[in-house]
């Protein structure tokens, strides 16, 4: 057999080795076919069983979710079960089968799509998101119909019958829930991104998954030996013996690493010498919240509120915002949550708030500058945050983006002082340090700002005058440039001396060199994406702070980012850090 | 027919789960039970239609019941909505 290598997109990390098993979900009725009247009754029976199967499966999933990731996540599935099992929903589908003569899959999909579209016309963002729920429910019912039709009821026997890499165009929750998971070595699919059900499920089960082109997927045959991710983003077909040996060794190493990481979940992010660092997560929408449940962060260091505003056709009113913020606070049950005020600019405009053309939007009307020009939006958001705080009984942390002048923080502080007594909420106010101006003048904000949080991505691009997205400048944009590091270090020191809490919420915090240097600078809190929490924690727990501080002192004197990177890499291997 | 105006105060409004509670409670009564928001009015016994009213926290709604057990229905369902917390 000739070895071939297919380029793939990794949806769930990890290597896998095993025989391919091409998932066959049975014969499908051509969608356009109109069933003759005598076949409609049996089609309806099939639909009815599929709905029952889907409801049963949702309830099982809800129970599993409640057990594994917390009761609040189970409600999503319970809600889906309520809708899927709703009598009127079934009557709508029944009419499509009996009156229009469409197949059961068609009925499930069209009725759910129709309902989804109607939900999406509602004003409330949360309710509009329920539109997507209808589509999920439709797909789930349709997939149960297919399983029943093919006669392959996988709930009974073991599927896959032997350990295998399952290859399928797509993977619905309905399919995967029936899988005998110990036999699933990996998934190869041809549709869906990193946020698809299949990808999320694969990640939560730690099963490697890749996406390949439909043509490549079709080329795979049952029994083909496959290796996923021996090199990242590669699928090997018929690999030679040496590669198989390498893959086995890699899989074993990954398994050991994962076990070690998972053991850290409930341990504090604490250096070898015992200094505790708050390890927070970045989040931006309700969809991120279940992920947080799985990794137990100490809080949320950056909750982006843009999502809530940008997905709406009109400005979300105060009650809508309040409900949304309250749900976030409730989910984090008492752990700190830092909400960043709406961070809008010409590069990310709101559909309902006209933005003038600017020739240089990154140096333009964005962040707090935009908010002070739109006082109604600012006031509404502050009110909603404080009302949410009052209703949940938890403190909110409010972070002001793009601060470059003391007058900006003073304006927000004054508004807040007026709103707090009226609402009964509790708040800390902080500034995002993402301009060199803010970094150099942190002391001037004493009394105005309770905490600072470095926005390392913007601070780097403003300090180095280098656009991160510009491929002509690759190599110029580097958080490890000594100029950027010095700004971060001095902002952190000044803030601590003024009694402000110090945090950082950029990608730099989760990169090994960033974690090490920022811990050495003395940041109280690092906020990283949920998927990076456990790895960052492992690194912190292997770190000797005194050694890191010596490293920091050395690198601040280096001339450029390349030498900083070299020095840090040598430190990592010398100290045998967990990276 | 009896009716009551109710201010919805639970944070997430009448989304799936709270709506389902109302539907389950309404189905216990033989009366026709409606909920209206603005000029839209739907049966409180239909989950999906109720969700599509798009009722959120802070909305004023009208609950109306008509039938032999209308007073009991009004009283218990109004109490249910006012007592929602999620």
Automatic annotation (TrEMBL), chain B:
Q: What is this protein called?
A: Phosphocarrier protein HPr
Query: Which PANTHER family does the record cross-reference, listed alphabetically?
Result: PHOSPHOCARRIER PROTEIN HPR
Q: Is Transport given among the entry's keywords? A: yes
Record-annotated HPr domain positions? 1-86
Q: Which Gene3D superfamilies match?
A: HPr-like
Keyword annotations for this protein? Sugar transport, Transport
Q: What does this protein do?
A: General (non sugar-specific) component of the phosphoenolpyruvate-dependent sugar phosphotransferase system (sugar PTS). This major carbohydrate active-transport system catalyzes the phosphorylation of incoming sugar substrates concomitantly with their translocation across the cell membrane. The phosphoryl group from phosphoenolpyruvate (PEP) is transferred to the phosphoryl carrier protein HPr by enzyme I. Phospho-HPr then transfers it to the PTS EIIA domain.
Q: Which Pfam families match?
A: PTS-HPr
Q: Does the keyword Transport apply?
A: yes
